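Final report, Chapter 2: Outcomes

The project's central promise was a pipeline that accepts a single protein chain and returns its three-dimensional structure in a standardized token representation, suitable for archiving and comparison. That pipeline is now operational. To close this chapter, we reproduce one record exactly as it appears in the project archive, with the input sequence first and the structure output second.
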Amino acid sequence: MRKRKDERQITLSRLDYTAGDLTTLPSSASYPIRVPLEKSKTDEAYYITKEYSLTIPDDSVYHLPFIFNDDGSPWYEANLFFYRQSIDEADGYKTTDELRRKASMLLDYKMYCDDEGIDYLDFSSPRPAPRPSYRYFIHLLYRDDISGLNLNQRTSVVHGFYKFISALPGFNLDIKRVDKTRKAFIRFENGFSKQVEIRSQTVNVSHEKKPVPLGYVRDDGEDLRPLSNTQRDELIDVLGHHFSVDERLVHLIALNTGARKQSIFTMRIKHVKQLVESLKLGGEIKALDDNSGQFEKGIASDGTLLLKAGPQTGIDTKFNKSQTLRFPKRLVDQIDTYAFSNEAKKRRRLFREQYGNTLKDDDMYLFLSSKGNCHYMAKSDPRYRQVKSRPKGEHTDYLKKKLFKHISASFPRSFTFHWQRATFAYKLYQHLIPHIIYDKKIKLKPGQLRPGEEIRRIQQRLHHKDRETTENYLKLFVDFDEKMAAQDDYEEVLFYGVGL
């Protein structure tokens, strides 16, 4: 009787000494670790030479998938493949989630071969069709439960596996018999190009962008919609009456800075101190570069306080982009009060009780749950490689459910936490419009703008790489309240039958 899939894949919690070299000569090892040989009648042993990485002192591998053959023996080649991908942090295999998902895909391939009596290493057929990888590709084509994108991912894992073992000693495998490939270049709008490998065992997946829904704007792949001024006021009112201080601050930071949830939830105590230090400096404002929008002592020309986010800061950003978030002074006062309140200190103590001194005091998360857990684990968190399932901001789903217990029936039911980013942009747009001077003969006063300057300002605050993305926001903002009123009425009739 064949083993079930869940019996053929397990997860190894931790593998140590992955950066070490093996030797039988202790004198040649620097700070060796002695490992006695099992079942040895003499005092024989081998030695592991520790070679710590300069950037990651912990050379262990965590939550590594491990696959068995149907007879219960380890599938040596597959396990070695995923081990190497893990320690090399290869593209597509950098997280434990990705490793386990792709191990599951490769196991599906092995189980298909087992069921069909196929030797997965036999590519001797002169014609491609009878070879294992080609037969599997045809099998996937006839499965109705697999999308084109998923099919391509599965055959990519299979091809990557064969590419790996074809380079191992003792495997007489010609990778050209696994799949036909060719090189191609992808050229990007910015002029850069990238060489890619095109495989034959793929299907065409439409790259046409699906249309943006009416009343929405697409921002880095996300479809967002701003709240109207009335809806924004209602949200703030509900936050003030029915949400705890930390829950309210999470929303207010999004509404006032345009930051995404991963940035908000990975703010640390040191970032609060940086903002407060800038706040204490008061009016010491001096521009460094009029075009960059950056100012000395963490203060911008409009009085907002600057906070760096992205690489080397401890604050995660989408696509790991460097960003500068701007905080209103009043909001910093509220953040400071909460960060050093008894409740926040209690949550940090609970974190310490569970995880010890994993994080220094200044590196502790600003927002923790009532049980002392983080809502989003930063990539710089020392536990990041060790945790099997990391929190990724699911707390916002709870906040949404709580919101809809108190919000009015007229509030848009499709609202998500990300909408607050678009709402921030809309509010900024409304603030800038009265300051635009269209008459070129009039000399600009401080704070006034020329037409088009508002786009640059909003682009800068939203950290858009392409100006076109910001321009799409502005197209939506023109007569926005009137457009949304009509759209909301339409949706009420369409989805809820209101007015029928």
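Archive annotation: The chain is about 40% helix and 10% strand.
This record, like all others produced under the grant, will remain available to the consortium after the project formally closes.
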